[in-house]
Amino acid sequence: MYGRRTVLMAGFATAGAALDANANACTILPRLKNYKFSDEACRRKIDQFVDLLNRAPAMTANAIESMCSEQGIKVSNDLFWSEDMKRTDLTTFLQTYSFSGGQRDRKPVRLLDPTLIRQRGDYSSYAFTLRRHRYREADPEDCNGLFAHDAFWGDEDVGYIALLHYDREIAVRAFPEWLAEHG
What we know:
alpha+beta
């Protein structure tokens, strides 16, 4: 009634299912089952990143590293450059983000306009803007190519994109195009 090929295929399918079940039962790696995308959880993770930016200047390097590890926070290497174009590291970037011209920003960094760009499976990406109220040093000779000015405090918006995995890890990178299109 059944051909040899049908019996063999059924046998392979049964053996494959048994191996898969045994492999999953014996794994030591944690598995995230029944993942369900949560926009709210993703936005909370972005809020945690902004909170860390605001708290980092008062924290030790070890405290920042442990918080990043606990919260799954990563920052793209392209952000690890200081204003004077010297290479820095994650903790230094986080500690100095709200400083410019030797002055700490007068207001905390604010999160603006987090927007879901894409969600697929256990990954989602959000574009967002961070607003700083930063110090700008005097430029009496128009060296910046825009205009000569005295020292002043003013708002600055910077675009970023965050890739989230399982709402548990966040990787942040610069996304200046976000402001060009949505400024």
